[in-house]
Write a structure and sequence with these properties.
Number of domains: 2
Subcellular location: Cell membrane
Strand content: 15-25%
Number of helices: 11
Low-confidence stretches: none
Pfam family, one: Glycos_transf_2
Keywords: Cell membrane, Glycosyltransferase, Membrane, Transferase
CATH architecture of the largest domain: Alpha-Beta Complex
GO molecular function: glycosyltransferase activity
CATH topology of the largest domain: Spore Coat Polysaccharide Biosynthesis Protein SpsA, Chain A
CATH superfamily of the largest domain: Spore Coat Polysaccharide Biosynthesis Protein SpsA, Chain A
Radius of gyration: 19 Å
Length: 299
Amino acid sequence: MSISVIVPATDAAPGLDRCLAALAVSEGVEHELVVVRDQDLRTPAAARNAGAVRASGDLLIFVDADVVVQRDALALLVGALDRDPGLAAVFGAYDDRPAGCGVASGFRFLLHHAVHVAGAGEAETFWSGLGAVRRSAFERVGGFDPQRRWLEDVDLGLRLRARGERILLDPRAQGTHLKELTVGGMLRSDAFERALPWTELLLEHRSGAGALNLGARHRLQAALAVAAAGGLVLGRPRVSLAALAGFAATDVPLIRLVARVRGRREAALAVPLHVAHHLAGATGLAAGLVRSARQTPPR
């Protein structure tokens, strides 16, 4: 297969130089590099589509401008597709060494890493931060939806799966995320850039309800987070403490990961940050349901 790597860089991308430098020394894969800088393209989805049009490869690999791929990441993605001709797409994960110095960055990208490691195998969605898709499959579904500002890669994956295409998550293919998050920025993103549009996608596609961080354990954690908050609001501290204890028990693997990588101080903050993450998700879910109900015409 001929291979094209597409990097959307239509806004200020301070990590772009590091991203391109890492791609230049990738091992085992010869590839064409397409960097999309056209600022008239209004969404990342439109930029990726424009890159696909310019690219000549049979295989399209999408890499975000703030991701530094590991040397073997591209080879792992290509190898998976080489070994399995029936596979339409494959994507990787953030590594366990996020570059951000803040507590929020460490927590959020380690959570992403943990979710993708746990979800290895056949997948229902796609991730364009570090993901490869056969051009033929990409074109059959019309590429990314250029009108979507958020989760256009999840939408692409759901449309691929609806056509019977297979997608693989291989978390061995990794990249370092360079973005620096604040707690407030993380929670706004979790609510309104992830949970809200994901709710709308689930209602639209009627599929993907068990994908990655929508699995059973994550749903249980969301319920416990809401119970903990509800106990505080209703003046039932014992309910809150019991819910938090249950939450912490389900969060031991993540706590250990954060402790190993970021130290005990940040590990101690992992549970309250994770609870806040789920509460933000519940807020986005509610907002998505309300907005969908308002847009649904009465029968």
